């Protein structure tokens, strides 16, 4: 009887009703799989094929199946002996416990699983949207050419694209620009529009690979509205593959159609970029503006920025 007030499930789990493990041990049976698979009673086999055996005995002019068995006695014994296989299965005695499983083999240099190697990130692989120099020209063959021919080929390579920006920068000039860009990766530049005043544009430097440096130009109003989700209207990439062997940095850019910018306006922003970032120590005011903007200095004035931009010829 289940004590009054005791839930049935709890009573059973505590063993009040029965011990399920005892029932399992009591009714469990252990069968020799080899015996079930390969050994059948001979009488059943004879009964199953008696008709065919009788036909075989008749064809050999024998009296019956028993006489056929005597004739083929030696062959039957040989066949039975060759078919018998030693079984690794232990005794089928249900009272005999199963032996413990063998210990796992010790790991050796041959048996140890080979760890999956980590894929090393290729620092020269560009992110989506960034093209390497090899996508524009054959770099190994270009290295064999003199500087003048390289400049000519690079400009000719982009002459057919009306939205393209293209330039060849001496390596010494680019080194100054890059050093300043790493200290001041963000800045704003004005675009002077006749009769409309100045329009401010936000720029940001990135260094996606060891051989590329990219500048993204965005309308400042859009950047304030969308932040990192804003769409650049102009993208410029500096390719450094030829900097050391040839002393040249190849620049390639695109002014996106339909973003409110012309190619000439993109060229103006690019020229302002080079003047602010590559002006050298003698351009004290431009350097000061970069530092004030990067530090969030309250003394930064757009009026001073416009004054410096008007000096660029």
TrEMBL record:
One of its GO terms (biological process) is mitochondrial proton-transporting ATP synthase complex assembly. Residues 96-106 have a biased composition (Pro residues). Coiled coil: none annotated. Residues 82-95 have a biased composition (Low complexity). It comes from the Eukaryota. The keyword Lyase does not apply. The keyword ATP-binding does not apply. Residues 81-125 are annotated as: Disordered. Pfam families: ATP11. It is found in: Mitochondrion. InterPro entries: ATP11. One of its GO terms (cellular component) is mitochondrion. Keywords: Mitochondrion, Transit peptide. Belongs to the ATP11 family. This is ATP11-domain-containing protein. The lineage of its organism: Eukaryota, Fungi, Dikarya, Ascomycota, Pezizomycotina.
């Amino acid at each position: 009887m289940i004590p009054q007030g005791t839930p049935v499930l709890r009573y059973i789990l505590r063993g009040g009703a029965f011990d399920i493990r005892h029932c399992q041990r009591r009714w469990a049976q252990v069968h020799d799989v080899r015996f079930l698979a390969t050994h059948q009673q001979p009488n059943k086999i004879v009964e199953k094929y008696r008709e065919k055996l009788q036909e075989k005995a008749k064809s050999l002019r024998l009296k019956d199946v028993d006489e056929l068995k005597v004739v083929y006695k030696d062959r039957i014994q040989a066949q039975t002996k060759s078919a018998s296989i030693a079984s690794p299965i232990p005794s089928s005695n249900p009272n005999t416990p199963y032996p413990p499983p063998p210990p796992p083999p010790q790991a050796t240099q041959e048996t140890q699983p080979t760890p999956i190697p980590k894929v090393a990130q290729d620092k020269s692989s560009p992110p989506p949207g960034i093209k390497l120099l090899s996508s524009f020209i054959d770099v190994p063959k270009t290295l064999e050419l003199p500087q003048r021919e390289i400049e000519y080929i690079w400009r000719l390579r982009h002459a057919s694209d009306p939205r393209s920006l293209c330039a060849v920068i001496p390596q010494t000039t680019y080194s100054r620009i890059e050093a300043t860009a790493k200290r001041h990766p963000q800045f704003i530049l004005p675009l002077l529009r006749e009769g409309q005043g100045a329009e401010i544009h936000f720029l940001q430097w990135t260094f996606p690979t060891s051989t590329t440096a990219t500048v993204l130009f965005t309308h400042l109003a859009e950047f304030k509205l969308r932040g990192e989700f804003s769409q650049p209207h102009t993208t410029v990439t500096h390719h450094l593959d030829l900097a050391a062997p040839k002393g040249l940095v190849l620049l390639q850019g695109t002014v996106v159609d339909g973003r409110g910018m012309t190619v000439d306006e993109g060229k103006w922003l690019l020229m302002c970029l080079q003047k602010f970032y590559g002006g050298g120590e003698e351009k004290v005011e431009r350097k000061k503006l970069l530092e004030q903007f990067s530090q969030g200095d309250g003394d930064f004035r757009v009026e001073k920025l416009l004054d410096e931009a008007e000096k660029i010829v």
